[in-house]
Amino acid sequence: MSASEETIVPPASPAPPWPDPRRAWYTVSLIAFVTMLSNVDRSIINLLVQPIKRDLLLSDTQISLIIGFAFSLFYMLVGLPMSRVSDVRSRRLILAIGLSVWSIATALCGAARNFGQLFVTRGLVGGAESVAGPASMSMISDLVPREKLPRAFAIYQLGISAGQAAALFFGGLLVAFFAGVGTVTLPVIGPAREWQMVFMVCAVPGLLTALLLLLTVREPVRRNRRVAGSAPLSEVGRYLWTNRALFVPLLLSIGIGSIENVGLATWRPAFYERTYGWGPQQIGPLLGTSLLISTPIALLIGTWLAEHMTRRGDADAMVRVCALTQTISAPFAIAAPLMPSPWLAFGCGVFASIFGLMSAPAQNAAIQIVVPNEMRAQVSAVYLFTISVIGSGLGPLVVALTTDLLLKDEAMLRYSMSGFALVMAPGGAALMWMALRPYRRAVLATPN
To answer: Cα(425)–Cα(11) distance, rounded to whole angstroms?
Structure first.
């Protein structure tokens, strides 16, 4: 008997019926919209690097600590404990409260006057957003059956990418608008520059959506539970250790991929400004529009691949799609910063994004398929820890340290980014290939 067969056992009682499809897909779509808002509030700061540095007199390393480490530290401190709550309490309520708190914290980022204040308020955004992923992914897994999970998580991923695109597109327009308006004097807060006004405007939609979530969404019934409450931490740890042949390469690959993606995305607007002279007003809407166009294409193809491989009987379909697409994406990510013109760099970046995003539906579904329900939010928290804590914490910092300490010239940012991708992308793909065989065994041992 395999390790997975010892750990995962069928439920003793018949599974409850699935929710009404219309209500289920509405809930999935609203969760995706909440996820979009979290990524707007998380990513908008990437577009504001240069004006924040200008007004607060920060170095690349300091701004990377605000963008990455502050967010990740609070995310880690809040996320792992709250994932246990998400395994037993109302995920709908947890999501609504988290959305309200991170929206208010985003507005407070706009009130910051120095490094310390922006560090703390950015940390509050990270801590509140840490509840969203585990609660959302656990809910989605109880809303639609296994064979439809790739398309459900494609919608969820569309929210992530739409948030990143909206931050770039509308963020660029907002920067241009408030730069034209000049300094605005606000009650209590006082003078506010363009980047501060952008933070405050971005906070408003989240508060309205939290109310909509509370009024229109029902908590789905939890399926395939073996115990009534949350699985003890010791059992979760034992499960991960017993199945370490799967989770070590899988989570390492996801973590490395996140370090690469977040590191490159964080510095991409600054790269275009320093290398080609394109400011936020130019590159923000351009990058945002490209994401809005390329993301649906990538997610549709990725979903089709995952479902096609599943229908033909490939038990390892989810991980195989990830390995293939990561391998194809790597050369484009490495080459993009080295291109002689901004349009060639932009084109390579679009191809890297398309192939990279094709893996998202399968990657998000992979863990939900094999993990028992009573520990699903907690294992999702570990998964999201590798993305949001390790990726957000290390990605921006490694690129910044390379630029500040090794190259010692912010104009050399392009070489920091290319070298960074050269190290990260092939390693992440290789680890995903290593996870294929143990993932196949785990799927075959898991009940529908």
So the answer is: 39
Q: Give me the helices (H) in 243-341, please.
A: 244-276, 280-311, 317-335
What is the full DSSP assignment across 44-64? HHHHTHHHHHHHHT--HHHHH
At 361, is the secondary structure helix, strand, or coil? helix
**Tokens 């979903």 -> residue:** 303
Residue 11 lies in a domain: no
Q: Do residues 223 and 15 make contact, with C-beta atoms less than 8 angstroms apart?
A: yes
Secondary element (H or E) of residue 186 = strand 184-186
Beta bridge partners of 192: 184
Bridge-partner residues for 390, per DSSP?
A: none
Q: What is the 3-state secondary structure (H, E, C) of 187-237?
A: CCCEEECHHHHHHHHHHHHHHHHHHHHHHHCCCCCCCCCCCCCCCCHHHHH
Degrees, nearest 5: CA angle 331-332-337: 110
8-state DSSP, 184: E
Whether 6 is in a domain gets the answer: no
Tokens of 180: 């034209």
Record the tokens describing residue 62, joined without a space: 């300091």
Q: Express each pLDDT in 86-121 by its tens digit.
A: 878 899 999 999 999 999 999 999 999 999 999 999
Burial classification of residue 168, based on how many CB atoms lie within 10 Å of its CB (0-12 exposed, 13-18 middle, 19 or more buried): buried
Q: What is the CATH number of the domain that holds 240?
A: 1.20.1250.20
User: How many domains, in total, are found in the chain?
Assistant: 1
- CA 115 to chain centroid: 25
Q: How far is CA 366 from CA 18, 182, 373, 388, in A?
A: 20, 48, 14, 18
pLDDT tens-digit readout, 160-179 = 888 878 887 888 888 888 88
Question: Against a cut of 0.90, is the pTM above it?
Answer: no
Q: Do the domain assignments include residue 8? A: no
The Cα–Cα gap between 2 and 349 comes to 42
Q: Which residue range(s) make up the domain with 399?
A: 18-221+233-444
Q: What is the pLDDT of residue 440?
A: 92
DSSP 88: T
| Integer Cα distance of 400 and 397 in angstroms | 5
| Maximum separation of any 2 CA atoms in the chain, in Å | 69
Q: Which residues pair with 185 in a beta bridge?
A: 191
Indicate the DSSP class of residue 446.
Answer: S
Q: Other CB atoms closer than 10 Å to residue 154's CB: what's the count?
A: 29
Cβ(443)–Cβ(2) below 8 Å: no
The number of helix segments (H) and strand segments (E) in the chain equals: 20, 2
On whether residue 284 sits in a domain, the answer given is yes
Burial readout 343-374 (b: 16 or more C-beta within 10 A, e: otherwise): eebbbbbbbbbbbbbbbbbbbbbbbbbbbbbb
